[in-house]
Amino acid sequence: MYTSRIKGIGHYVPDNVVTNKDLEAFMDTSDEWIQERTGIKERRWIDPTTGDMPSTMGTKAAKIAIENAGLTPNDIDFIVFATLSPDYYFPGPGVQVQDQLGIKEIGALDVRNQCSGFIYGLSVADQFIKTGMYKNILVIGSEYHSGGLEKSTRGRGVTVIFGDGAGAVVLSRSEDEKKGILTTHLHSEGKHAKELALIGPATNRWVDQIMTENDPEDTSYYPYMNGNFVFKHAVTRFSEVIYEALMTNGYKPEDINMLIPHQANLRISQFIQKQLKLGDDQVYNNIMRYGNTTAASIPIALSEAHQKGKIKEGDLVCMAAFGSGFTWASALIRW
Ligand code: UT7
Fold this sequence. Notes:
Elements (H helix, E strand, L loop, with lengths): L2 E10 L4 E3 H4 L7 H8 L3 E3 L9 H15 L9 E5 L11 H7 L6 E5 L5 H14 L5 E8 L12 H4 L5 E10 L5 E9 L7 E2 L9 H7 L10 E2 L1 H22 L9 E4 L4 H10 L11 H4 L6 H11 L8 E8 L3 E8 L1
Parallel strand pairs: 4-5, 4-6, 11-12
Antiparallel strand pairs: 1-7, 2-3, 6-7, 8-13, 9-10, 12-13
Bound molecules: oxa(dethia)-CoA (UT7).
């Protein structure tokens, strides 16, 4: 019986720092509002002259993760790439990573589960390893939000929140039954799909339709979020799915050494921390510096927490996410 362990981790964020103050130049907002409601102080937005894209950022993070695992790119058997902001409408960026790594023609799968995308991807990779099909799988979360945000007062409810970046892990086969991914838990509730969505361009709203209508009020090609509604569901689902992971494995909240919540809003993370009665050293947050990077947020946070020595061999690590779909998910790992 195989288990799967995170053998290497890496992250990459663009150099360009955008502070809350910088946003005041093109929308009616304030550092005070953004910090009070979200905890965000600054985020990274790609400078388009650098050529950074979701695939290239993902590849940069992947190379660090592969090196951190003590492997070479040719040791990778399969790629899982989670993003809501692919370089192209199709194909997804997984195949671009295969090319950018310059490796053999391995399989590449793209995951479209937004904020839960990384955990969904990790769950898929976990199954491939546990069945014995693959040995080393790259799981990447990468997002380029800034190019598609409405940078005006009309879009401020969404625009101030999102940032760009990428994180990656190498999930590898292990024969140590006591360590590795214990369980993953995946959920969806599609009736709320439109509460956090980008409706077009897509098959239900093609570009030529948007162009023909040329309606200045049309915001369907910008992300939309019903903030309060999403917030209320998030706090409930985060807790539920963390408890589900703990109870399945016979643990209690106090057994968690490190919780890595998807970085949606610092108030959400603090609410969950309080509900689970966790100490500050049991939860890792970095939304202050990166904003919400959707599928990239968990691997970036995991990578930073690991780099800082906050995750040690034998620790019980929990990851949890909630977002567009709605989808929500958790993973419990004995490190
Ligand atoms: O990652 C996926 C999951 N995402 C989440 O879980 C996010 C969940 N939601 C949230 O984090 C919060 O709902 C937001 C941060 C998006 C918004 O915070 P809020 O406390 O729910 O604010 P609100 O939407 O109720 O807006 C309050 C006021 C409104 O003005 P009025 O109507 O009270 O006059 C907004 O127009 O704040 C206004 N507002 C802003 N003001 C300054 C909205 N955005 C901004 C802004 N700057 N950027």
